[in-house]
Structures are given as structure tokens and as C-alpha cells.
Amino acid sequence: MKKSFNIKMITNHIGLPTIIIGGFWIIIMILGVINQLSFPDMLTDGLKRFGRWGILTLAMVPAIQSGVGPNFALPLGIVCGLLAQVCAIAWGFSGVSWLVVSALLAIVFAALMGYGYGKLMNAVKGSEMTIATYTGFSMTMLFSLLWLILPFKDQRITWPLGGGTGLRETIQLDIVGSTQILDKLWSFSIFGVSIPTGALLVFAAGCVVVWLFMHSKTGIAITASGSNPMFANAAGLNVDKGRITANIISMILGALGIIVYAQSFGYTQLYQAPLMMAFPAVAGILIGGASVRKSGIIHVIAGTLIFQGLMATSLPVANELFAGTDLSETLRMIIQNGIILYALMQAGGSRK
């Protein structure tokens, strides 16, 4: 007997958030065209944001698959990436060498941070998402103090007053020639849409690496442990070790993601800048159809594209529709936190 697809089946397959936000994005783009905004420019901004946020959103996959849930402690990985960037600048690296050294340092710092965080998550099973959020907040504030007392002497990154101590809140990356290195790499335009080829290729490479890892013996064990810890224990799998490994991978991706993000914007922001950065990444993967228990690469790609595309489009459209009023941040917060709330409400059930 042939299956008849109805609205409920389509909604269950794609996901209600994906349908709603995707449809909303299309409406916003139509409104933009009606208000004579450049359609190629809207797509260009969306693709740039897609490249910036891709790896940060990808960091959610290992954590979710391990049973920890969305990584609300992503700021831990982000501050590791920020520290790596600052060290690379202070040590005199520039251009591509700055990017490479920052990435290598970020991997080391984030691996150590991820190991400690994984141990913490094993100690608070059942309350991971709550503890993760406050852990991210606390570490961001701790690093706000460290940025003031770390012994950096490079006048390009320290405050000009106070004897050259303390790092600046915003560090322009043009001082090391590292602005949009990836965005401009092999970039081209088609029908007026500028394609940030390098950033997209890095994101694609990250997706392939994570996919291969999650389909390796270790990755399959992590997924099995996250899906059914009791069965995994009975089968002889080390659930706690898998959770630690997943969190290390997640933190490394967060650290690398902020490097890609920073070079695209052209500056590195310290102090409280990482505080809320986990929430757009969490919202992105949930919009793509993931749940707090199951996620995949397709959820990362679809969710990041839709969510960041909507964010890029809503700003100019809102400015046109409501002259003199900037509603983009309000719109972002409503969508972002609404999606997270919806996912948490569904945590007790299962998504097909």
C-alpha cells in the first residue's frame, strides 16, 4: 500500500521550526525585494554569516550525540580560541601564519579545557544543560579578569593608558594583515552574489571531519552511549570516556570556529563578547531539525543557513519597514530563544 504524505508527516520529517523559520526567511526576502533592497546583497550577507557561524554550530554535534545535549558552555572553547589569537599576535605572526598558529594553539588550549569540562559533565549527569550555561558564563567572566592581568606587552593589543597593561576590548586584525583571509580566498561573484569560497571550504572540511569521526568506531560508541547509556554500559562501552572525548571535540570546534568568525569580521573581541555566543549556535542546529538528543551534519548546514540568512536579511528589511527603528536584535532574540524553548519543551519526547 502506497504511503500518502500529509502535512503532519512532512512536519515530522522536516521539523516544525525548520518549516516556520524557513518560510519566515522567504517572506522577509520577498519584503526586501518589494522595498527595493538588492537581492544579491541579501544573499551575499547571508552566505558570509553562514561561513562565520558554520563551525561554531558544528560544535554542537559531538556534545548532543554524546548525551550531554546542546553545548551551552561553548564560550569555554571560544575563550581558548581568543587566547590563541592574542598569543599569535603577541608572538609576531601575521597573515596566513597567524591563522595557522592561532588554530594550532586553539586546539591545544581547547583540548585541555574540554577535558576538564567533560569531567564536570560526568559529575553532574542529568543537569548538563543548566550547569553548562552557568559554566560558560562563569568562564567568560573569569577571562574578563585574565585579559586585564595577563603579561602581554605588545602595544598593538594593550590599552594605551595604564602603563600598557591589560588587553584592549577590540583588537583590529588588520594590524597583522589577517582580515578576511578565508573569505577572500578563491572568492568569486555569480549574478552579483559574492561567494566567500575559503570560509565555505573550511566549513565543508569541518563537516567532513566531524562526519568521519562520528562514523568511526569511537564516534559510533559515543552515539550509542548518548542514546542509551545503560545499554552501552552493559555492552562494555566506557560512557564517561566517550562524553569526555565528545566535549573535547566540541570545545576544539568552538575554538577554531571563533578564529574563522574573527578573521571574517576583521577584529577580535574579548571580555564579555563570548558571553551569549552559544545561543545562536544552539538555535541554528535546532532550527535545522536537530533535537537535544539527536543531531547530524545536515541539521548544522540547514539550520545555520536558514537562521543566519534570516538574521542577515531582517536587519535591512526592518530598517526599511520601520524607519528609524532597529528591530533586528529584538527579532533575533525572539526567534533564537523561542526555538531553544521549543526544543527544551520537546526534550521529554522523541523527534523522528
Verbal overview:
There is one protein chain. The chain is built from 15 helices and four strands. It has one domain (51-345): Orthogonal Bundle (ABC transporter involved in vitamin B12 uptake, BtuC), CATH 1.10.3470. The two termini are 22 Å apart. A hairpin with a 2-residue loop joins strand 2 (188-190) and strand 3. The chain has a two-stranded antiparallel sheet. A two-stranded antiparallel sheet has the order 2-3. Helix 3 packs antiparallel against helix 12, helix 13 (278-287) crosses helix 14 and helix 13 (278-287) crosses helix 15 (328-345). The radius of gyration is 21 Å and the shape is globular. 68% of the residues lie in helices and 3% in strands. It has 352 residues and is mostly helical. The model is unreliable at 348-352 (pLDDT under 50). The chain has helices spanning 7-14, 16-34, 39-58, 60-65, 74-90, 95-123, 128-149, 181-184, 197-214, 217-227, 229-234, 239-265, 278-287, 297-321, 328-345; strands at residues 170-172, 188-190, 193-195, 267-269.
